Automatic annotation (TrEMBL):
Keywords: Multifunctional enzyme, Phosphopantetheine, Phosphoprotein, Transferase
Record bears the keyword Transferase: yes
Protein name as it appears in the record: Polyketide synthase
UniProt GO molecular function: 3-oxoacyl-[acyl-carrier-protein] synthase activity; fatty acid synthase activity
Domain Ketosynthase family 3 (KS3): 1-420
Domain Carrier, residue spans: 901-982
Organism per entry: Mycolicibacterium hodleri
GO BP annotation list: fatty acid biosynthetic process
Length: 990
């Protein structure tokens, strides 16, 4: 049978707002019952200790806090609609979102996928209260009610196209949802499943029913399998799990809580009452589940039982379990029931038990079961091979099996066999990373930043890279983003600075890009090298190191001491041009390959002098072997020339520099690096005279530390031998555009033959012309320098690089920490691009890390005051009534032709109307607010908005929906449309 991984969990149970709090509650043996809150119903009106007809025999149950809070903005739901939603729908939306994130999935990334949603529930008391008040029934109330909408609401708002259904099998509903989700995965209907359950106690109806049926515990507590068991205590719960096929979860590096080996469902058939359980059916159910899982009863370490604490239910379940486990001999099966902690959560009872079992397998501990003062001796648990878990019980480390049972009130049963998660690849350790958060608003971003900052403070340093990678996967797709890179301490400091308002540069609301980032690539020339260059990056980034190894393997046959000795050794000769040029090529090649491997789109390439070899190699014009041979031969032949030349950088135009050296025949222009950045090269004595002349004119001149006069006639003696050594060079077409610093223009791959490289030796470096040609021909978002320093990035600015083009330093010089590539990743992510981060991190993503769940806002509250006619606060109720009434009648044509005063349409009045339709305050709207994405104005609300505009501004009565809807995407669009149309009717814009 196919195995399924439980990769994500989120839950809200009484006393536990999330799964971690739920686990602490279980381990501490907490019981969560309280008196019925006044928000739910007036308990005094229905409580009778004797359980008289029409009454309930308890004042207590188990309740979730703050069930009226809902972050409607996050899901793009207008307040007017949110107010009409069953709170079970609202809470399920948030719980499903958090469960997906817990499973290492960005919920937005599932849009358009056949992800399945299965929700178990057995009551919707909100529906009864809303739809039985007939005068107040509206379109919003209808769509906000009913079981069917609980699953559909999740599928709709996350744009999921897989199977979506609500399931009601009474108390087994949510474990049935898990079972049906597994079936859909097995059938190939979907690759990811959200299985959930919900139960809220909004009326005393079921409490009265349980009392009248003799099932209600007077103290509101379940005592499963306890001597004092006297019925059930009701409880609330909203929970979701994310299921994947086990092989898929492992392949995607998702963390796994537990594995579903099998799940089985059946029915009691005709027992001694429709509400009474059937021992034979339960036994058959468990035996079939074990057989499908290929597990023997003796292998089951514990069973999370249905365990309600009713006399008949506990007796039958204990006997059925005994029929399975009495063969165990001296090693009894541990028995537990979560209902002792949080009560019987009815429609969500099955998933509560399922989650408890998953967490127990994950932590290797079975929490204690709360069952009252003592176990029920009459159940003969010992004889049945069972032992009630009266304290926390350690579980074996590997290969642990467990059973989970959930039995419905009408006879629908489900049993699942779980196994502890398999050993999976451990995430590569790393103490640096790129942290990313996103949220739909600035306020939400700050709220979640605080949560992540708190989590980072206690995180182990070596877990940081995995933690950060998971944020890159899970937290990337919403409108407002915060991105920063560094060590744990730097990240915590940066987050705190952002929260204090001191680092707004860390955040962005740039739109998400659907294309790769366009980057102009510049490769450094000689003079940028230094001993040990990129050592930190080589040590930290295996991807960079692998590319450097490739270059080294190609260069080593030409180097006496090997490339790494030249780059990282202490050899004083490493600065010699015969070693410096190959070392620069290797570093530039490895940096460029690492960047290109991340998926960026090279817009152009430019190399400065020897850097052109690296640029041509990265563009595929030269193979790495040909490029290595070329650069090694070039460096050796240059290094063999007599020393004595000199080079001078001067702050003059090329015309001024040419005039300066006109009378110095041994001195030439070697490079034009900018409009006032020229290098002259030649015989040392004549270069010295040029230096003096510049200073005499009040200019600036800097002597460059070089071994030879490069790009001067002093190089001429080695050109012929270079041509001979490189004869037969066969360049390939360029894979991206190259701009030549020899020709000062775009160059085709076939032009970069032996003659090209021979001419390059003595020709001046025309960087200024190459950059200007590139800028004129190609638009780029960024320019990156592949080299050990960022020299060319500054020069490119002088050459006319547009100010909006961002600079990306891949290595910042001798003080480099090796984190520059992480800085590049942070920049691209912040700007809305989605690079492949593995090369920039240096390792595959590997195993994802559990990160804090999304923190939803709680300031928006939606509830009723107990009366069916008051489903929402009075102000919102008036909106509901008004907006969902019959559309305003369109003014007849004959009437429209009569002279009439055109009403004034001020921006403020139109904003007030838009706010009124959606249930917002005017202060919550901005001209840029998007109707659909930000404010939740779906087609229904847009129709209502148009009807209101027609009603308030009769001169718009002739406007059709087809004409308007394609034009209004934002609040500003609506304002401008109305003002323009009313103005055109009178010739004056009001």
């Amino acid at each position: 049978m196919t195995a399924f991984a439980v990769v994500g969990i989120d839950c809200r149970f009484p006393g536990a707002p999330d799964k971690d709090a739920f686990w602490r509650l279980l381990m501490d043996g907490v019981v969560t019952d309280t008196e019925v809150p006044s928000q739910r119903w007036d308990v005094d009106a229905y409580y009778r200790p004797d359980g008289a007809a029409g009454s309930m025999n308890t004042r207590r149950a188990h309740f979730i806090d703050n069930v009226d809070a809902f972050d409607n903005d996050h899901f793009g739901i207008a307040p007017i609609e949110a107010a009409a939603l069953d709170p079970q729908q609202r809470l399920l939306l948030q719980t499903a979102w958090r469960a997906l994130e817990d499973g290492g999935i960005d919920p937005r990334s599932l849009a358009g996928t056949p992800t399945g949603v299965f929700v178990g529930m057995m009551s919707s008391e909100w529906t009864s209260l809303q739809l039985l008040d007939y005068p107040e029934v509206t379109a919003f109330r209808g769509a906000g009610s009913g079981y069917f909408m609980t699953a559909n609401r999740i599928s709709y708002h996350l744009n999921l196209t897989g199977p979506s259904m609500a399931i009601d099998s009474a108390c087994s509903s949510s474990l049935m949802a898990v079972h049906q989700g597994c079936a859909a995965l097995r059938a190939g209907d979907t690759d990811t499943v959200i299985a959930a359950g919900a139960n809220l106690l909004l009326t005393p109806a079921l409490s009265i029913f349980y009392t009248q049926a003799g099932l209600s515990a007077p103290d509101g507590r379940c005592k499963p399998f306890g001597q004092s068991a006297d019925g059930i205590g009701r409880g609330e719960g909203v929970a979701a799990v994310v299921l994947r096929r086990l092989d898929d979860a492992i392949a995607d590096g998702q963390p796994i809580y537990a594995v579903v080996k099998s799940s089985v469902t059946n029915h009691d058939g005709r027992s001694n009452g429709i509400t009474a359980p059937n021992r034979r059916s339960q036994v058959e159910l468990m035996r079939r589940a074990l057989a499908l899982a290929e597990v023997e009863a003796e292998q089951i370490s514990f069973v999370e039982a249905h365990g309600t604490g009713t006399f008949l239910g506990d007796l039958i379940e204990a006997n059925a379990l005994g029929d399975i486990h009495e063969v165990r001999g001296g090693k009894p099966c541990l028995l537990g029931s979560v209902k002792g902690n949080i009560g019987h959560t009815e429609g969500s009872a099955g998933i509560a038990a399922f989650i408890k079992a998953c967490l127990a397998l994950h932590h290797g501990v079975l929490p204690p079961t709360v069952f009252g003062d003592s176990a029920n001796a009459g159940l003969r648990l010992d004889a049945h091979g069972l032992r009630l878990a009266d304290s926390a019980q350690q579980l074996p480390v590997h290969g642990v099996f467990a059973g989970v049972s959930s039995f419905g009130l009408g006879g629908s049963n489900v049993h699942a066999v779980l196994e502890s998660a398999p050993a999976t690849a451990v995430a590569d350790p790393g103490a640096t990373g790129v942290l990313m958060l996103s949220a739909p608003s600035e306020q939400a971003l700050r709220r979640n930043t605080a949560s992540i900052a708190t989590a980072l403070e206690s995180l182990d340093d070596q877990e940081l890279a995995s933690f950060c990678r998971t944020t890159n996967v899970v937290k990337r797709s919403q409108r407002h983003r915060l991105v920063l890179e560094g060590s744990r301490g730097l990240l915590v400091d940066g987050l705190q600075e952002f929260l204090a308002g001191n680092r707004p540069d860390l955040a962005s609301s740039a739109p998400m890009r659907k294309v790769a980032a366009g980057v102009g690539l510049m490769c450094s020339g000689q003079g940028t090298q230094y001993s040990g260059m990129t050592r930190s990056l080589r040590d930290a980034n295996p991807v960079y190191r692998n590319h450097l190894d490739v270059a080294a393997a190609a260069l080593d046959p030409y180097l006496a001491s090997g490339l790494y000795a030249a780059v990282f050794g202490d050899d004083p000769d490493s600065a010699h041009t015969s070693l410096a040029q190959p070392a620069l090529f290797a570093v530039s090649y490895a940096l460029g390959k690492t960047l290109l491997q991340s998926g960026i789109r090279p817009v152009f390439g430019i190399g400065h002098s020897v850097g052109e070899v690296a640029a041509a190699c990265l563009a595929g014009v030269l193979s790495v072997e040909d490029a290595a041979r070329l650069v090694a031969v070039r460096g050796q032949l240059m290094g063999a020339l007599p020393a004595g030349g000199a080079m001078l950088a001067i702050d003059l135009t090329v015309e001024q520099a040419a005039a300066l050296i006109a009378d110095k025949p041994g001195c030439v222009i070697a490079a034009v690096n900018g409009p006032r950045s020229v290098v002259v090269s030649g015989a040392a004595d004549e270069v010295s005279l040029a230096h003096d002349a510049v200073l005499a004119q009040g200019g600036r001149a800097v002597n460059l530390t070089v071994s030879h006069a490069f790009h001067s006639p002093l190089m001429e003696p080695m050109v012929a031998e270079f041509r001979h050594e490189m004869s037969g060079l066969a360049p390939s077409p360029a894979e991206f555009r190259l701009f030549s610093t020899v020709l000062g223009r775009e160059v085709e791959g076939h032009e970069m033959d032996t003659d090209y490289w021979a001419n390059q030796i003595c020709s001046p470096v025309r960087l200024f012309d190459a950059v200007q040609a590139a800028v004129s021909a190609a638009s780029t978002d960024y320019v990156a320098e592949a080299g050990p320093r960022s020299t060319l990035l500054a020069l490119a600015r002088q050459c006319g690089l547009p100010p909006q083009t961002r600079s990306l330093a891949l290595c910042s010089g001798p003080d480099s920490t090796g984190m520059e590539l992480l800085g590049v990743a942070a920049t691209l992510l912040r700007d809305g691009y989605s690079p492949d981060l593995s090369p920039l991190y240096g390792r595959p993503v590997g195993q994802l890390h559990r990160i804090p769940p999304y923190v939803f806002g709680t300031s928006s509250r939606f509830w009723f005051d107990g009366e069916a006619a008051a489903a929402v606060p009075k102000a919102v109720t008036s909106h509901l009534r008004e907006q969902t009434a019959q559309p305003a009648a369109v003014t007849p044509v004959a009437e429209r032709q009569q002279p009439a005063q055109v009403p004034t349409a001020s921006e403020g009045a139109i904003l007030a109307l838009i706010a009124d339709v959606g249930g917002y305050s005017v202060g919550q709207l901005a001209r840029t607010s998007r109707l659909s994405d930000d404010l939740g104005y779906d087609s229904l609300l847009q129709f209502r908005l148009l009807d209101r505009l027609r009603a308030d501004y009769p001169h718009l009565g002739h406007i059709s929906i087809v004409e308007v809807l394609p034009k209004i995407h934002s609040v500003g669009d609506v304002v401008d449309f109305v003002v323009e149309r009313l103005g055109s009717d009178t010739g004056v814009i009001q």
